[in-house]
Amino acid sequence: MTELQFYKMTGSGNDFVVLDGRSTTAGIWTAPQIRAICDRRNGVGADGLVILSPVDAGAVRMTYWNSDGSRGAMCGNAALCCTRLARVIDLISTETFCLLTDSGPVRVRTHADPDQAEINLPDVSAPTQQGLPSSRSGEAWSSFLQVGVPHLVVRVDDVGAVDVAGRGQALRSDPLLGEEGANVNFVGPSGESGLWLIRTYERGVEGETLACGTGTVAAAAALVWHGEATFPVALRSRGGLRLHVRGRLKADLVSGIWLSGQGRVVYRGLWEVPAA
């Protein structure tokens, strides 16, 4: 057996196992190993695995897998966590730097609050309206957007009453959303002025997660496009914490997008890796 140090991190309840890329490389990790370390009974337990590797004085690479072992191009809450951890473990010395992801470079910065971070996401194009899955009672509209990965946003009357597992799974793999499907975000009013509630069914996890960073951005953009909110938009995740989205609405896109939220180290430990 060999020991590999890991960091257990959380972004508003969306949790990750994060590894220091100076001690391991992405190429040696197989899907069964990723599923094993993310297993909530026999492993560390997480929604995803991340390897965080130094690139140069101004950049760090984030390699991300979902808990089922599939590669993920981008994960907003993982990016928030990696932004914080990169400073904690001295991969980077500046407050603002570039996080390289499979969906492209993302400008990020640490926050005065030690458990918070911010990420600057690429512009988001206007949502696709035509050909989306038909709505049900309690669903006002739905929008399909790309925020690093595909997201379906469904506006509902009562977020707490949504069968996220059932309805989310059905929509996640709807043929109209493409061969790989999409994450499904249910968003609705909180009863508190200016605050929205969001719950997400994530592909690759194949179930509800307690938060989704890119899904939060997708929901905020869709609400603004539908005229139900203006930037900045505050959304509370299933994990109970708030994420904030800033941006500028133009005719066919949202630009200047910043997502701020939690990126907290819960604990660090040693993973006993079976010898090859």
Structure in words:
With 276 residues, the protein is of the alpha+beta class. It has 2 domains: 2-121 and 263-273, Diaminopimelate Epimerase, Chain A, domain 1 (Roll), CATH 3.10.310.10; 124-257, Diaminopimelate Epimerase, Chain A, domain 1 (Roll), CATH 3.10.310.10. It contains 4 helices and 18 strands. It has helices at residues 31-38, 76-88, 164-172, 213-225, and strands at 2-11, 14-20, 48-56, 59-66, 71-72, 96-101, 104-110, 116-121, 124-125, 139-147, 149-156, 183-189, 195-202, 207-209, 233-236, 242-249, 253-262, 264-273. The chain has an 18-stranded mixed β-sheet that branches. The N and C termini lie close together (9 Å). The model has no long low-confidence stretch (mean pLDDT 94).
Name some characteristics of this structure.
single chain; 276 residues; alpha+beta; Diaminopimelate Epimerase, Chain A, domain 1; 2 domains; 18-stranded mixed β-sheet; 4 helices
Unreliable runs: none
Taking the sheet with the most strands, its summary is:
18 strands, mixed
Which structural class best describes the helix and strand composition? alpha+beta
- Total count of domains: 2
User: Helix-strand pattern, N to C?
Assistant: EEHEEEHEEEEEEHEEEHEEEE
